Task: structure prediction
Amino acid sequence: METEGRWVYQQGKVPHAFSLCRVLDAGTFEQSYDLLGVVRVTVDRRFPERLPAALRPWAVATLTSGGYGFGRYYASYSTLDEDGEPDRAIADEYVDWSGTETLAPTSQPSDGAGVERA
Result:
């Protein structure tokens, strides 16, 4: 029984993180991801749902404060592998960024622009 307790304890030590990537050639067969950064986060075992809910606000705050330009970005909440790289995604979000604020697709075509401010 002691071994089982140790195994569960070690499993709980898997590091988690938020990461942000710029999506290159978005929407094409050449689409790829450029990892911009990884921030380790602590999982609150009593309220684990707080981290996925905080992913998009974190990504938008990071884009706002980082001076990132126009483009599509991919934010992920995941575990980290032994090298500190994102491993298994738990939640993810795409953020279309104008350079100063988020963009959202319109629900219906209006003036042909296809984008409205969110």
About this structure: The radius of gyration is 18 Å. DSSP finds two helices and six strands in the chain.
